[in-house]
Amino acid sequence: MGKILILFLFIVLFFNVPAFAGERSSNGPSVMDRVGDVLCIRPLGFIRVIIEAVAYGVSLPVTAPLKKVDAASEFLIKDPYSFTFERPLGEM
Question: Using CA atoms, how far apart are residues 72 and 78, in angstroms rounded to an integer?
């Protein structure tokens, strides 16, 4: 059971694929999209932000000598933070 949970979390947290492909007939996200975002996507995104912040701290000894700290912070800190906290509710 533990391996299945870890695999599920890995897939959900580290693959940023849109859940729905295609155009919508309305102007904005539906109510179900917003509810799903609040109840599922945002909490998982918060967990992802924490995990990737730890990964950023662990990667600093490697990225600092290579002068890739900015690229690492963009990928591990800014992108997940923007996805979780700055994007409009219900939009993927």
Answer: 9
Q: Which run of H or E residues covers position 62?
A: helix 42-63
**pTM of the shown model:** 0.65
Domain chopping of the chain, boundaries:
30-92
DSSP assigned state of 39: I
Contact (Cβ atoms closer than 8 angstroms) between residue 47 and residue 14: no
Contact 34, 89 (CB under 8 A): yes
pLDDT per residue as tens, the chain (92 positions):
777 777 676 666 666 555 555 555 567 888 888 888 999 999 999 999 999 999 999 999 999 999 999 999 999 999 999 999 999 988 87
**8 Å CB contact between 56 and 72:** yes
